Every structure is written in structure tokens, then in C-alpha cells.
């Protein structure tokens, strides 16, 4: 796994972004950017290329699934691995994320080990 990959963290709560960033930095990742909502994610993707998106489900301006659908419908962006980070456990919502093309799913609360394991599933060792 490339520890220099460019990662975009999307969550409307600064504290939640900080937790994920700290876990990623402890794993060894160094190239991490933040977005405070779905609109900010789409804006960031227009400016530069990312290798991974970790996105919260519940954001006020646009849900994580809405962000995912927009990304998957764009030929330039559709192959970016997208991991949903959420407390949502309803089967219908998980299925909606799978149907939209989510790469993996992290349930809150989580640990650095959980993030590491999910990244290995998406990228391999």
C-alpha cells in the first residue's frame, strides 16, 4: 500500500475528520486533505486527483451516497476507491451504498486497525 497516496477525508464534523486523520497518520499516511461536506468533496476533485476518499454518510449539504453516485457517474472519477464511514447499520442503507459502488464500509466507532484492515481489502497489502 502506497503511504504517499492522496487521501480525501469528508465529514461535516471537524472532530470526526481529525480522528480519521490521526489514525491514518499513525498508519504512516502523509498526504491527507479534508472536506467539510459533499459539495467540498466535488470541488476538491475538480482541482486535483485523489487516490482514496473516506466519506461520512450523514452530511448536511449532501449525503455520502449522493457524493458516491456523483463520483461513480463521472468517467474521470469513477475508479477512485470510496470508503463510507458511518454509524448507519440499516440493511437498506448498506445495500444502497453497495448498489452505488462503495469500495468498502467502516462502521463508527472504529479503530486504526479497522481502517488499516479496510484499506488492505481495497488496495491489497
UniProtKB/TrEMBL annotation:
Keyword Nucleotide-binding: no
Name under which the protein is recorded: Response regulator
Domain of life, per lineage: Bacteria
SMART domains: REC
Pfam families: Response_reg
Residue span(s) of domain Response regulatory: 6-123
GO BP terms, alphabetized: phosphorelay signal transduction system
Alphabetical list of InterPro entries matching this protein: Bact_response_regulator, CheY-like_superfamily, Sig_transdc_resp-reg_receiver
Signal peptide boundaries: none
Key words of the record: Phosphoprotein
Keyword hit for Cell membrane: no
Residue positions where 4-aspartylphosphate is found in the record: 56
Amino acid at each position: 500500500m502506497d503511504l504517499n497516496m492522496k487521501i480525501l477525508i469528508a465529514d461535516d464534523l471537524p472532530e470526526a475528520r481529525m480522528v480519521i486523520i490521526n489514525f491514518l497518520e499513525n498508519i504512516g499516511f502523509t498526504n491527507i486533505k479534508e472536506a467539510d461536506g459533499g459539495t467540498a468533496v466535488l470541488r476538491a476533485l475538480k482541482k486535483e486527483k485523489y487516490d482514496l476518499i473516506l466519506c461520512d454518510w450523514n452530511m448536511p449539504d449532501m449525503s455520502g451516497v449522493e457524493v458516491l453516485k456523483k463520483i461513480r457517474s463521472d468517467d474521470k472519477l469513477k475508479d477512485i476507491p470510496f470508503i463510507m464511514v458511518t454509524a448507519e447499520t440499516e440493511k437498506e442503507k448498506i445495500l444502497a451504498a453497495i448498489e452505488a459502488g462503495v469500495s468498502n464500509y467502516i462502521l463508527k466507532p472504529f479503530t486504526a486497525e479497522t481502517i488499516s484492515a479496510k484499506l488492505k481489502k481495497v488496495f491489497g497489502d
